[in-house]
Amino acid sequence: MDYLLPGVLPLTVAMGISYTAFRLFADMKNGIFDRFQSMPTARSSVLWAHVLTALVANMASLAVVVLVALAMGFRSGAGVAAWLAVAGILALFTLTLTWVAVIAGLTAKTMDGASASAYPIVFLPFISSAFVPTGTMPAPVRAFADNQPVTSIVDTIRALLAQQPVSGDIWTALAWCAGILVTAYALAMLVYRRKTA
């Protein structure tokens, strides 16, 4: 339980973002974006509403997962600061993946395509340190696992909850999230402007 929970948390986020792409696609098709454009609001406010709603929903899902883990026997001696750091990293990861989902929702051709956009992201935790140590993997798989964002995020969360030093993993996790977030946000806004022009 102590080893698996830090891996299940990012997986929960990855599985939750497909609904954002689905809702965004549905709103585009139903003309809600056109209605908001006629109002005196910022053009990006519709996207931010989807993103913030997804952030709140995913954080609630993460809280449920932690409560279930506690009911099943998970225990951590981590203090309030460590738990807040875990929550902060997961919030940043959620925000990052949600902007990726926004791009998928804006560019999808069908409802199923929008929903399926999260599948590649859901796959990432399975090739990371989420469920098994990367040292037990074959060399090519280990090379990928060691150099993708989920591994550094999981290792940081695992260290924080186990009250161990987080080493450089936290900076790698933050760099991955910040880089993907900035890129995804810029691309999402570009696609949104073209769709609503």
Q: How would you sum up this structure, described in words?
A:
The chain is mainly alpha-helical. Helix content is 74%, strand content 0%. The protein has ten helices and no strands. Helix 2 (18-30) runs antiparallel to helix 4, helix 2 packs parallel to helix 5 (80-107) and helix 5 packs parallel to helix 10 (169-196). The N and C termini lie far apart (50 Å). The model has no long low-confidence stretch (mean pLDDT 87).
Considering the chains and any ligands shown, give keywords for the structure.
10 helices; 197 residues; single chain; 0% strand; mainly alpha
Low-confidence segments? none
Order of helices and strands: HHHHHHHHHH
Structural class: mainly alpha
The dominant shape is elongated
Largest sheet: none
Q: Which strand-content bin applies to the residues?
A: under 5%
Count of DSSP-assigned helices: 10
Query: Radius of gyration over alpha carbons?
Result: 18 Å
Please tally the β strands and state the result. 0
Question: How much helix, percentage-wise, in residues?
Answer: over 70%
Estimate the mean pLDDT confidence.
87
Distance between the termini: 50 Å
